[in-house]
Amino acid sequence: MTGPRYELFSMLAQAAMHDMGIALIPPFLIQRELQEKRLVIANTRSLPGSKAYHLMIPERKVESASLTAFRDWLIEQARTYQLPQEKSDQYLR
């Protein structure tokens, strides 16, 4: 994976505010930024389930090479920390 990597949520928030991409940050850590409209929630739709991440891509961008690379990287990272094999395949499709 190329590009910058950040270890602190505050650094992720700053990067997102400077149009460097999206950030996965718990909303309670960026309340001020949300109230001041310096950051927005990319997707307000909530999906059921706990301990899960969902990657949602607009249909018009499904063929995007950069989003495909990100999706593949995300799946590989999830596999690194996967559940026992018999359970993991249902989550990593």
Automatic annotation (TrEMBL):
InterPro entries: LysR-type_TF_proteobact-type, LysR_subst-bd. Signal peptide: none annotated. Residues 8-78 form the LysR substrate-binding domain. It holds the Pfam family LysR_substrate. Belongs to the LysR transcriptional regulatory family. GO terms for molecular function: DNA-binding transcription factor activity; sequence-specific DNA binding. One of its GO terms (biological process) is DNA-templated transcription. This is LysR family transcriptional regulator. It comes from the Bacteria.
